[in-house]
Every structure is written in structure tokens, then in C-alpha cells.
Amino acid sequence: MSAPTHSNAELIAAYLDAVIRRDASAVDRYFDPDVEYMVNGAPSQQLARDQVAALPPISAECHSALPWLGLYRGREALRGFLAHMHRNLEVTAFGPREVISEGDKAAAFGWFRLHALPTGRTVDISYSILFELRAGLIVRYHFLENTLDVATAFRAGGSWLIDTDGAKHSIPLEHGALEE
Amino acid sequence: MLNMYKAMPDLHLTIEDIVAEGDKVVCRNIWRWTDTASGKKMQFHGFVLWRFEGDKIAERWATVTPPAEGTSWTAPQIGKQAEKPASGH
């Protein structure tokens, strides 16, 4: 069943607003019981086990820095993800976003403001989401964000060592748009 | 783009999802290639948004994952709709 084009954008806006309010009831209101909810990808072991090679792998390093990233199936798993995420960060705002809809699919591009609770840092993160809807509920939710910027918000010290074209760059803590 | 094609001579793009509305198109893609130095199969994933003016691309936004070692993949059969050579991304 196809949701009307305008309601896809409204549904996405309503869900993202519910995330800011930490409204746990949004899970039942907006998601199909069998939802596939992916945040940046899935740990390689899970991908291998589930044989879902069409989804992006999350490296062990990235997963150890941001352990709530991953692939969640069903509303209960989604509730667990949101609780885990909210223990570590607050989403305080979503910036202007663009929503493109076609039939049962929609995509959103925009940015959100993240406040990392352990470090107190606030950063703006660009994101994109692909949605698939069934009977007015989200049955597939694939979210990608700039994980380097997110990880930087939680980093307490040291530096990143990045190898680019054979040259090693040390990126100190001050790198990036941080608001201390 | 030419530098990318030099670094990834067998770069292959798979369109997993596509959404279009008005003058905008969004794709969920997987880019796969063989690293020329190590011979490893590599991949990254992402969403790309294009805005068209007439028959030309006027704007492009993308969110992509870091490159990672990927699973092996098979080159597409000619005429298969969902698999296209990487003539752009």
C-alpha cells in the first residue's frame, strides 16, 4: 500500500521530532513490527552471519567507539538502540532537510545537532536516510552519518592518525567544528 | 573523477535503491573495486542526491561510508538493469 507522497515527508518530520523529545512511543507509532533499522551499517560478524552483503560493514574500531551503531530488526531491538543511544547523546536539533518521495520509498538529507553526554561537546552532523513504508509505517530505515565527526565528539584525548595517499596525518582534538 | 578511475580501474557501481521526485533523484549505491596495491576487494556504500536542471546535473550531495574490505562480487551480465558501470556517481 502506497502512502501519499506528502505524508512521507510529514511522517519523517514527525519521527525525527520525536527523537529530539526522546518520545519512546514513536517506535510503535511510526515503525512496522518487523522494521529493519540500520544505523551506518552492521558489524562485519553480523553481516557474515545474516548474509546481508548489500549493507555496509562497520569496522571493529568504529563499533568499539560508537557501540550503538548497527543493524536492528523489530521494534524491541529498536527500543534498545534508542535507549542505548540516549544514554550517550542528545539530539538537540535537526536542521533544514530535503525529503524526496516516490511511492513507498523516501529519502531525507540534512543535518542534526548532537550533544555528547560524556564529553559535553556539541557537533553538527550531516546525515541521509532512506525509508521504505508499508501501510503507513516505516518497514526499512537506513541511516548514514559522518561517523568520524560523531566519534570526534566522544573522544577524550589523543589524536587520529590518518593515512592519506601514503602520508600520515595527525588530526588533533581541536580539528573539526566543535563547540566546547 | 579521472584520479578516482586511475586508483580504481575496475570500479563498479551497484544501484540498490532509487527514489525520484521532480528534478531530484536519490540512489543507495555500493561502490566496489580491487585495490591495485594489495589486490583486496574493497567497497563503500552511500546515498547520493542529484538535482537536475534540464538534462544536466546542477547539484550533488552524498553521504558515504568509509572504504572497507568487501565481499567478492561478480561482474554484471549485459543488460541487467540494476547494475551499471561507474560512469559517474
Number of DSSP strands of chain B? 6
Distance between the termini of chain A: 47 Å
CATH architecture designation of chain B: Roll
Give the domain tally of chain B.
1
**Overall pLDDT score of chain B:** 82
Order of helices and strands of chain B: HEEEEEE
- Helix-residue proportion of chain A: 25-40%
Which runs of chain A of at least 5 residues are low in confidence (pLDDT < 50)?
A: 1-5, 175-180
Major sheet attributes of chain B: 6 strands, antiparallel
Number of helical elements of chain A: 6
Summarize the structure.
The complex is a heterodimer of chains A (180) and B (89). Helix content of chain A is 31%, strand content 40%.
Describe the structure.
- Chain A has one domain: Nuclear Transport Factor 2, Chain: A (Roll).
- Chain A is 31% helix and 40% strand.
- Chain A is built from six helices and eleven strands.
- In chain A, the strands form three sheets. In chain A, strands 1, 4, 5, 6, 7, 8 and 9 form a seven-stranded mixed β-sheet that branches.
- In chain A, helix 3 (44-50) links the parallel strand 2 (42-43) and strand 3 (57-58).
- The radius of gyration of chain A is 17 Å and the shape is globular.
- Chain A starts with a helix and ends in a 9-residue tail after the last strand.
- Mean pLDDT of chain A is 84; it is low at 1-5 and 175-180.
- Chain B is mainly β and 89 residues long.
- Chain B has one domain: Nuclear Transport Factor 2, Chain: A (Roll), CATH 3.10.450.
- Helix content of chain B is 7%, strand content 54%.
- Chain B has one helix and six strands; from the N terminus they run αββββββ.
- In chain B, strands 1, 2, 3, 4, 5 and 6 form a six-stranded antiparallel β-sheet that branches.
- In chain B, a hairpin with a 2-residue loop joins strand 1 (12-21) and strand 2 (24-34).
- Chain B is elongated.
- Residues 75-89 of chain B have low confidence and may be disordered.
- The A-B interface holds A 5, 40-41, 53-57, 59, 62, 98, 100-102, 105-107, 109, 126-128, 130, 142, 144-148 and B 16-17, 19-21, 24-26, 28, 30, 43-47, 49, 61, 63-66, 68, 70-71.
